[in-house]
Amino acid sequence: MTVAAAVPATPSHAPDAVLLGFARALRSAGVAVTADRERTYLEAVAAVGLMNPSGVYWAGQATLCSSPADLERYDQVYAAWFGLERAGTRPRQEASPTLTMAPLDADSGSGQAQEEEADAIHAQASAAEVLRHRDIATLGSAERARLAALFATLRPRAPRRPAHRPTPAARGIVDARRTLRDQLRRMGEPGPIAWRRRGTRPRRVVLLIDVSGSMSPYADALLRLAHTYAATGLPVEVFTLGTRLTHVTRPLRQRDPERALVACGSTVPDWSGGTRLAQGVKAFLDRWGRRGMARGAVVVVFSDGWEREAPEALGEQMRRLRVLAHRVVWVNPHRGKEGYQPVQQGIVAALPHIDDFVAGHSMAAFEELVEVVARA
């Protein structure tokens, strides 16, 4: 049996959708499957071919598993997802299901069942609330999978800026031209006075995300946050900073977050590498910023401030950025930790040119960041 035969033969089950679904199920089972591993898995399966079930099995184990503890979970998810056991082995004997009989008297246990259901709902709500305040770097694979679902609860809003043209309003200043035109239509007879006020338009938001090695524990969550902004259709532009600058707005426009992260991972060539913040910010300003992308925008920099080169260069580029932007927000994942002091040379050089210095280590911090950007 092939992988294509493991799911119903319908047009909605494309091979890449089946394989990505398997990777997500494996992540939900507790295996640390990242976006770059998903991309490597798709490339490996394409190399061995879908018609080779043994090759598909070993390609997934080689690319998605990172420790011997993941192998048993991989076999279980593989059998459940594809309806197959490991290629070349006999299927395991399934244990007979155990049936639980409920009492026929509806009144005898209804109160207890309602109390147990209420306790379960309360426990789930409490667990989600605790997860919102947990440091992302300390989460396990299963907790990260639950955290990914919480990004759908974020409601990002673009900040507003004054528009050039006024709009009709119920109050404000007198719109003399509209008032006179209305009187001319009335043959000079007096009529109601028209009012106008200056309208507003959404302000552009630019996200610069550090994906270097020191930021790798937070990179997946930060890109999910960027996808939450980009997928809403707001005027948002997203770049990654590492050893080079990469424009990733287009792949993050996809609705499905997992597909968007896989596409973004295939676009970024310097994932978990070094960092050159000064050169990255300079490249953004020289190629995009001065042409208009940063003018009047809210620029959000996600980084811990570790700079390989001279910190004075980063300070100079942040000064240039501050001149162009409406507001500069720096998000540091260590900002929300107890006892943190901004002593890194990059942060010290950038602080004089930053309007808001906020935390970015948890879902609760992301919710506060959304409000900071909306009020900018």
Automatic annotation (TrEMBL):
Domain VWFA: 202-368
Coiled-coil ranges from the UniProt annotation: none
SUPFAM superfamilies from the UniProt entry: vWA-like
Protein name: VWA domain-containing protein
InterPro entries: UCP010256 (IPR011195), Uncharacterised_CoxE (IPR008912), VWF_A (IPR002035), vWFA_dom_sf (IPR036465)
PANTHER family documented for this protein: BLL5662 PROTEIN, BLL5662 PROTEIN-RELATED
Region entry Disordered, spans: 89-110
